[in-house]
Amino acid sequence: MSDKKLHELLTQVHEQLQQQKSIDGESQALLQRVLADVKVASGSENSDEISQDLSDRIEQQAVEFEQEHPTLAGVLRQIMDTLGRIGV
User: Angle of helix 70-85 relative to helix 48-65, nearest 10 degrees?
Assistant: First the structure.
C-alpha cells in the first residue's frame, strides 16, 4: 500500500512540475534528482545515513517551495511521510 501511495505521489510531483512554469531551472534539476533518489531508495535497502540525507533534501525542497508552490511543497511532505512509513 505504501509503495502504491509513493508511486502516486511521485506521479503527482511530476505533473506539478510540468504545470509550474515559474520554477527556476536549478530548483527543477534539484527536485528531479531528489525524485530519482526517492525511486531508488524505495526500491532498495539503504543505510540510515543515505536515508537521512534524502529526507533532509526533500525537506529543503519543501521549505523552498512552500510560499510560491504550496501544492508541490505539500506533496513533498507527503513523500517524506510515506518514505518514513516504509522504512526509508
Answer: 160
Give the span between the Cα atoms of 31 and 26, in whole angstroms.
9
Q: Which residue has the cell 526533500?
A: 58
Q: Which residues does 84 contact at the CB level (< 8 Å), separation at least 6?
A: 55
Whether the CB-CB separation of 16 and 72 falls below 8 Å is answered with yes
Q: Which of 78, 84, 61, 65 is nearest to 5 (CA)?
A: 78
Q: What size, in residues, is the chain?
A: 88
Neighbours of 35 (CB within 10 A): 19
pLDDT digits 0-9 by tens, 39-74: 777 665 555 656 777 788 888 888 887 887 888 888
Q: The C-alpha cell of 51 is what?
A: 536515508
Residue 55 dihedral angles phi and psi, to the nearest 5°: -60, -40
- Name the residue among 78, 86, 69 with its Cα closest to residue 16: 69
